[in-house]
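Annex B.
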Amino acid sequence: MRFNSTTSAIKPLTIAAAAIIAMGAMSTSANAKRFFSDTSISVLYGDNYKTGPAGVKQEITTVTLEHASAFDWGGLFFFVDRLQGNEDVSGSRSKDIYGEVAPKFKISDYSNSFIKQVNLAGQYEFGTSESGFEQDNFLVGIGADLNIPIDGMKYASASIYHAFNDDTFSDADDQQITLTYGWEKNNFVVDGYIDYSFNNDDKADQLHINPQIKYNLQDALGIDNRIEVGMEYSYWKNKFGFDGVDQSVPSALVKFHF
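DUF5020 domain-containing protein: predicted structure tokens.
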């Protein structure tokens, strides 16, 4: 049976849209104070990506819509990736969708402390692929915003989740530790995340290290919006839980903020 990517994408995209609308309503309420908001679109290109249980190498171009915002009640991060692979032997190109919606709700905050804020953290991961792969994963946990005493450090956080997984290959739950960070100085930007997923009965433990190294051209070009160029590096051990499928890929990156 031929996989219908449009139909299969309806459910996760509808849920994601509902979550974004609900969070947006909270963020624009009269009592909510916004500290920060950023929306961007980026284009990423790299080859040597690993796909599927066999770890087939593929060139992939990814277009990403991304948003991050912080409020007095917590914050919101979400992104949607549109991935397009190179042509296969039949002349067709794979076209996949992956996204995450990750709200956090402040439980308590502290001043002059290594831990700035403790949060209730959630995450919804969704994806569809023309190969037939689908996923709908819900993560719930607790996290902390951290005060890292490094000049130029914009943010850092650490979270631990329990993941309720539902994908084509497994519905076994696991746990995940996520670290995020952002540093900027003299128009150089380094940001990204580290994910470690473990205790899945059906899959191998996964480690995904994903930094972006960029330079902000806004001042040089004399424009009102940030535009960053640089690279992303993806190291993913046991990608998607497939034992021995390890990915190590640098990719060219252009990111426009609006």
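The chain has one domain: 5-257. The chain is about 10% helix and 60% strand. Further annotation is deferred to the next reporting cycle.
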